[in-house]
# Entry
Amino acid sequence: MVPVPDSKVSVMTHALHYGTAVFEGIRGNWNEEKGVISIFRLREHYERLLRGCKLLMLDIPYSLDDLCDITVNLVQKNKHKSDIYIRPLAYKSAEVVANLKLQDLSADFTLITVPFGNYLGSDTLKCCTSSWRRVDDLMIPARLKIAGIYVNSILAKTEATLAGFDEAILLNHDGHVSEGSGENIFVYSEGTLITSGLEDNVLPGVTRNTIIELAREELGIPVIERTIDRSELYLADEVFLTGTAAHLTPVVELDRRPIGSGEAGELATQLQKMYFNIVVGNNPKYNHWCTYVTPDA
# Structure
């Protein structure tokens, strides 16, 4: 464990040149009443990171339990008493260039925590359809958080914000709805909640999975995972984005067209309230999703 100013990597590091790394974004939510950080679905995040390590041949010397323990220890030692973002990164640490053979390259692991607030900068979103298309699984698997793939998201997000929008919605190469630049997308129409299927090159998000379960089990709303046409977004009753950083955020406008009433919808508001109550550790039914850490004094 070292202070951030003392944690350095070489300019020769393979991951710096080629994006050969996988990462996770994990939320730690401060519960003022209980005096604890509630880390949401920690094991699920590390399960996905380890799948990414397998794909990129990142041989790190830590098991799932080890990674969870390391994270709890760091959160405890860093003494945060606010919401935090936890960023584990497994990367090709070999100091070589002009080598594209994963099997030849050594790997390492790093972990940081930082204070973190509203990721999207707004409680409701005005979005645009991006001119950039979502990377296809046959190019780079979109179902893992591979560092290099995020140039795709960065180009879309930059295009959207330069044009005055909050966020971008990416289509896949068939022209169907994929996801936001860093969030999954949900469409609520005629009593059914719909989200893009994995075959449309979406990340199988931890928050996405959470919202699907809450909608079905707590609200009795049918949820379908399927291909979504772009026009369905314009005609939907509600649209919202979900993600670890974004939580659940309603989309009130797309391509300067209002979605539904043009305000946060009833379902999004209901799910959002339920979700926030769970992630801070105030719903005992879902304690199994939360890892509680008391920061050092």
Remarks:
- Helices lie at 14-18, 42-55, 64-78, 150-162, 206-217, 230-235, 266-279.
